[in-house]
Amino acid sequence: MPAGLEKACHRCISKIASNVCFLFGLLAFLALPLSMTFTGMKFLEDCPVQPLIPLYLLVGGVIGSLKVTLLLYDSTRMRQLLSKSVVIDDDDDDEYPWRQNAHKYYIHLTLSLFLFLWFILGNYWVFSVYLPNFIPPFHQPQDYCDKTLYIFAVGVLIISHTVLFLLIFCSCCIYCFSRQRYSSEED
User: Fold this and answer.
1) With a threshold of 0.90, does the pTM exceed it?
2) Taking Cα atoms as reference points, which of 109, 37, 23, 114 lies closest to residue 73?
3) Using 50, 70 and 90 to split pLDDT, how confident is the model at 42?
4) How many CB atoms lie within 10 A of CB 169?
5) Distance CA 160, CA 170 (A)
6) Cα angle value 73/26/82 (rounded, 5°)
7) Tens of pLDDT along 131-171?
């Protein structure tokens, strides 16, 4: 990545991460993994047809809460640094936070990779028993899943698909606009 584009991306990410609205958005987004955790714990034994659905919600909620909490910490830390008006010289090697804190970068990367793989597994587990019996049948009492649990899991997956689509779409738009701007600056 060209140095100018890298600096522009860093400035953009810093401004977004230090924005108060972004912090409130992260706090609001923290409600989803927390509700996943509580729903997974509450209905842990209530889906014998696919016992991994409540486990998906429980583990995804705990790891998702950890990820959002780390993002909140990093954002508040960036706000503190900006409020102190820390000015960093352009030639300084420590200008980019991911170079200073490589271990944080790898923690975020590992958590994100785990959540993505867990998301794929959750899709398989939830949709492999699409519309199960919500009331235990008399002849097969283990062939059901609690309606609240199942509908909540489907809702979480729909929200996750929507957020993933929006992230990919916005990233592609930003990439296209930055490439267009970068190529027009070269001319």
Assistant:
1) no
2) 23
3) very high
4) 10
5) 15
6) 50
7) 888 888 888 888 899 999 999 999 999 999 998 999 899 88
DSSP state of 143: S
DSSP summary character for residue 145: -
Q: How far is CA 47 from the centre of its chain?
A: 26
Write out 76-140 in H/E/C secondary structure.
HHHHHHHHCCCCCCCCCHHHCHHHHCHHHHHHHHHHHHHHHHHHHHHHHHHHCCCCCCCCCCCCC
Residue 40: exposure state from Cβ atoms within 10 A (0-12, 13-18, ≥19): buried
Q: Which of 125, 78, 82 is nearest to 104 (CA)?
A: 78
Tokens 């409020």 locate to 83
Measured CA to CA in angstroms, residue 180 lies from 176, 184, 185 at distances of 6, 6, 9
How many residues does the structure list for the chain? 187
| End-to-end Cα distance, the chain | 18
pLDDT at residue 89, as a whole number: 46
The per-residue pLDDT for 128 is 94
Q: φ and ψ at 134, to 5 degrees?
A: -95, -15
